[in-house]
Amino acid sequence: MNDSEKDARKYMIPGLERGLIILMELSRNHREMSFAEIVKRVDIPKATAYRAIQTLEYMGFIRRHPSTGLYTLGVNVLRLGFEYVASLDVVQVGQPVIESLRDQTGCSSHIAIRDGRDVIYVARVSAANATIRRVSVGTRLPVHRTSLGRMLLTGLSREAFEELYPEEALPDNEPGAPADREALWQLVQEDRQRGYVIGESFFQFGISSIVYPLFNHDGEVEGVVSIMVPVHEIPEGDRERLRHSVAEAADNISNLLGYQGHPGERSQMT
């Protein structure tokens, strides 16, 4: 070590240095890591690493998965670099969240995105006692006939909506679906104002869903998170509890994608 390096190091804060080393290791691997893996990779004494990790977790720079105990980058470190945040995949950040949502609600949980006039399921976790027909990753359903699809349309302007549906008549119209393009637009505006959708037997009889939008760092609708409830109509006693759990999951994923808004602003989407 030369004199210049020695001069630089004498002003360094050891605890800060160790914390940054841990963050760089998590960032470099782009995956969840156990405490033992972190200690092995950063070559820091266990007691020191434990204190650094506890501090970083408390400050929101790393997060610990509630089920597996594994660590990954947290909201605050992601917010430091929007270019990195913009490159994150909604599945990458959302999978642990929907696993926790499934555990909280006992319901199968999903993340979906829109591809043209299709809803595509990109992540899913099934409830242990799930009896309803399962959807798999990659399953496509028509946007206009699903509660998830309606929520995905809430980010569109009228012009973009009419480009998506240039004809007045909607394709493959079936009982329970909106009668025409204008009816769908009105439903979407109501959903947009409300900020969520509770669809009871909307697409398949005997299955209800609660759907919230996911926002990226630009405030755009990136996808949706939902739960499937295996009942025709959600009991009033469960409705608010389940809705709150889905809303919280949506906020967590949106924050991980860099969204800077607040839950109360959900009904004011642009």
UniProtKB/TrEMBL annotation:
SMART domains: HTH_ICLR
Alphabetized GO MF terms: DNA binding; DNA-binding transcription factor activity
The entry's keywords: DNA-binding, Transcription, Transcription regulation
Ranges where the IclR-ED domain occurs: 76-259
Presence of keyword Secreted: no
HTH iclR-type domain ranges (all copies): 13-75
Protein name in UniProt: IclR family transcriptional regulator
Upper classification of the organism: Bacteria, Pseudomonadati, Pseudomonadota, Gammaproteobacteria, Oceanospirillales
